[in-house]
């Protein structure tokens, strides 16, 4: 019996790392404003946004020098000031970055991959979308490049025992689905054992120890590698910062009703950032499949929102015949509210068989916070 630990960005956030996309955008603004010092013209542009001085006799370097003498505002606030003064400055965002900024400002968070996919679907509705999609892919590539640059500036060695213990602890048969319990107990040679008596028999208890544990990290940071054990293996399914060329950043919802329309367009630009095809560039996906097929397994979800951006892969895991339990770790706030219901709602979207969903997902009373 094995255990698959799905690790998402919430895992990094639990280590006090500023790895949210909103944090990344704030860093981008700092870099953007600092870059004004190198701009000797009235126009400062990159693939995401263009700043223009309406007075063509002035340049952005002069603006930056004056700014450094006057105040110590954050890059985010400087850009806010620029945008609030259209008489002096013009600001133009690319369509993708405009959606990203809109979501950050209205919700305080953003899912860049989802924003990209929504635009991609809009483009497929047009008669000729090849040029627009090419530009969209260039914008996403630039965002990925800058995201890697940002994530390399942060790191942690803050190991947390309360996160490690659930990864390596013995299985609790109460977590197993009704349908999968028999298979799990047979695999651990406990099918004829009185489970209530196991507590007094250490030899029998040891059978509940996971034989193999895979930490399936959707993050690019090395945080998960602090949680090794004799039976732990690591799988950076979307790549890592040490191998930036292999990083996967795009969309992974082949179950979406509009996905067939994308395939029917017969345009390779539309599939350039499709996760299903990108998985074939490394062995990570096949290593995961071999793990799933090896034995019955339990899934722990630590910090992954289970949103649609990874729905194809998560469906493969959650509906696999060897999956006997899905145990989400949820977040609880100081006011007593939590996101368990929201999390399991997201998990449900990764199922096509709702009977399996109701049986395999562990109820809230048996789950833990992180």
Global shape? elongated
- SSE order in H/E notation? EHHEEHHEHHHHHHEEHHHEHEHH
Give the count of helical stretches.
16
Between the first and last Cα atoms, what is the distance in angstroms? 24 Å
Question: How much helicity do the residues have?
Answer: 40-55%
Largest sheet: 5 strands, parallel
For the largest sheet, list the strands in their spatial order.
6-5-1-7-8
Count of strand segments: 8
User: Low-confidence runs (pLDDT<50, min 5 residues)?
Assistant: none
Derived structural class: alpha/beta
Q: State the domain count.
A: 2
SSE map:
Elements: E1 2-7, H1 9-13, H2 21-34, E2 43-45, E3 49-53, H3 60-70, H4 75-83, E4 89-93, H5 95-107, H6 112-124, H7 130-151, H8 161-168, H9 181-187, H10 202-205, E5 213-217, E6 232-236, H11 259-264, H12 275-278, H13 284-294, E7 297-302, H14 311-318, E8 323-329, H15 340-348, H16 354-360
Parallel strand pairs: 1-5, 1-7, 5-6, 7-8
Antiparallel strand pairs: 2-3, 3-4
Helix pairs in contact: 2-4, 5-6, 6-7
Kindly describe this structure.
This protein is 41% helix and 11% strand. The chain has 370 residues and is an alpha/beta fold. It has 16 helices and eight strands. The protein is elongated, with a radius of gyration of 24 Å. The protein folds into two domains: 2-17 and 159-239 and 282-366; 21-151, no CATH class. The mean pLDDT is 94.
């Amino acid at each position: 019996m094995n255990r698959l630990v799905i690790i998402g960005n919430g895992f990094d956030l639990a280590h006090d790392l500023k790895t949210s996309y909103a944090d990344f955008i704030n860093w981008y603004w700092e870099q953007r404003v600092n870059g004004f010092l190198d701009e000797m013209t009235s126009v400062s542009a990159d693939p995401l946004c263009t700043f223009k001085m309406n007075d063509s006799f002035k340049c952005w370097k002069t603006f930056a020098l004056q700014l450094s003498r006057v105040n110590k505002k954050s890059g985010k606030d400087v850009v806010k000031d620029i945008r609030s003064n259209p008489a002096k400055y013009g600001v133009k965002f690319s369509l993708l970055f405009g959606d990203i900024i809109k979501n950050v400002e209205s919700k305080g968070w953003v899912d860049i991959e989802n924003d990209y996919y929504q635009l991609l679907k809009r483009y497929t509705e047009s008669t000729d979308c090849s040029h627009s999609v090419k530009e969209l892919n260039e914008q996403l590539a630039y965002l990925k490049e800058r995201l890697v640059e940002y994530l390399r500036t942060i790191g942690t060695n803050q190991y947390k025992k309360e996160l490690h213990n659930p990864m390596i602890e013995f299985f609790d048969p109460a977590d197993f689905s009704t349908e999968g319990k028999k298979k799990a107990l047979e695999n651990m040679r406990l099918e004829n054992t009185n489970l209530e008596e196991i507590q007094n028999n250490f030899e029998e208890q040891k059978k509940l120890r996971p034989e193999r544990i895979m930490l399936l990290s959707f993050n690019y940071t090395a945080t998960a590698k602090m949680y090794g054990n004799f039976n732990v293996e690591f799988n950076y399914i979307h790549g890592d910062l040490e191998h930036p060329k292999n990083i996967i950043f795009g969309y992974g919802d082949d179950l979406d009703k509009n996905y067939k329309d994308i395939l029917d367009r017969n345009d390779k630009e539309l599939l350039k950032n499709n996760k299903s095809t990108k998985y074939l560039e490394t062995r990570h996906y096949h290593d995961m499949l071999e793990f799933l097929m090896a034995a019955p397994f339990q899934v722990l979800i630590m910090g992954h929102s289970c949103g649609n951006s990874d729905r194809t892969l998560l469906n493969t895991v959650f509906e696999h015949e060897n999956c006997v339990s899905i145990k989400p770790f949820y977040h609880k706030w100081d006011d007593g509210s939590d996101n368990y219901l929201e999390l399991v709602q997201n998990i449900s979207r990764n199922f096509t068989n709702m009977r399996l969903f109701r049986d395999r997902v562990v109820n809230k009373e048996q789950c833990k916070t992180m």
